[in-house]
Amino acid sequence: MRLLNWTGDGAPLALQSRAMGSGENEVLHRLGWNVPKEELIHIQEHWLKFSEPPASLHFLLGLVYIGFFIIAIIGNGLVLWIFSSAKSLRTASNMFVVNLAFCDFMMMLKAPIFIYNSFYRGFELGMLGCQIFALMGSLSGIGAGMTNAFIAYDRYTTITKPFDGKLTRTKAFMFILIIWLYTIPWAVMPLTEVWGRFGPEGYLTACTFDYLTTTFDNKMFVGSIFFCSYCIPMSMIIYFYSKIVSTVFNHEKALREQAKKMNVDSLRSNQNQGSQTAEVRIAKAAITICFLFVASWTPYAVLALIGAFGDQSLLTPGVSMIPACTCKFVACLDPYVYAISHPRYRQELQNRLPWLAINEPAEDTKSVATAATQNNEENHEQKA
């Protein structure tokens, strides 16, 4: 990989020092102009062709990430606390919720690296900070994707097969173990450069896996991680939720037809309608979170494919920062989707933090189907 050396004695004067003026006289250099020689070798030549952004843009992104950090740490911290400590929420299905919150929490724990780099306007923490940032991003991103896929599977079995093969805590733990055994190699391989590598991107304040090197091995890595970390969880999510929608529509159609034959408006009692409401709200929360995963990670998938197999001239530093922000944004939204849509979680929040004034009705906190699920889980565990 050929790199531009803009730090030597033969480099243009404007690239060796910053000439600061006021207003229109401020000189903007190319990205990487202030990076030490020993760190410059880690930066893709592609990024070094672009001018650095104005300082105000760095500061704006830093402030955005501070907001992301605060919102995500509080939201996911609450989810981890409530779902782990509340006995009524310690079900097998909710183990996936805790795992997702842990992934989102980890995703934003790396934000201080980006914030520090942004306020110092570049690759300030060097390759060590870059590797920590990219490692945490790979673990949390791929882990969240696979967790969303298993949440979709759990919702599918709960709704389409409510009395067959209930998920036990042991089975859920094994699924979570599979998720992490699947995720870890995709983070370790580029970290150790066994296959792929990590490097800075965009304004050199964020890092991810290298999708710009055009060697055959690197293209194979990008293609493989795209398929395994994006296509597989995406396909599982689409398949399971399409089956859920199909099942629900067919069930509702059958109920309407039967009600018509019996000359009644509905076969549902008021109690069943309330129970259905709780189940539907939980399903909506899961669907919303999985949709957010698709919407937030698709830009990164497209970016990586363009870098490895397409026209790299389309990838400006500013463009590459958009997917970096969208995937952090979803880590902020996930816990609040549950706060809005998960009735039992809202009830626990109301009990423990009454000053939030959530006002969740007690009778809507536990549906008949949910109670049956929890009882079956306990029976399975007692037999085990």
From TrEMBL:
This is Ultraviolet sensitive opsin 1. It is found in: Membrane. It is a multi-pass membrane protein. Keywords: Chromophore, Disulfide bond, G-protein coupled receptor, Glycoprotein, Membrane, Photoreceptor protein, Receptor, Retinal protein, Sensory transduction, Transducer, Transmembrane, Transmembrane helix, Vision. Pfam families: 7tm_1 (PF00001). Belongs to the G-protein coupled receptor 1 family. Signal peptide: none annotated. It comes from the Eukaryota. GO terms for cellular component: membrane. GO terms for molecular function: G protein-coupled receptor activity; photoreceptor activity. GO terms for biological process: phototransduction; visual perception. Its main location: membrane. PANTHER family: OPSIN (PTHR24240).
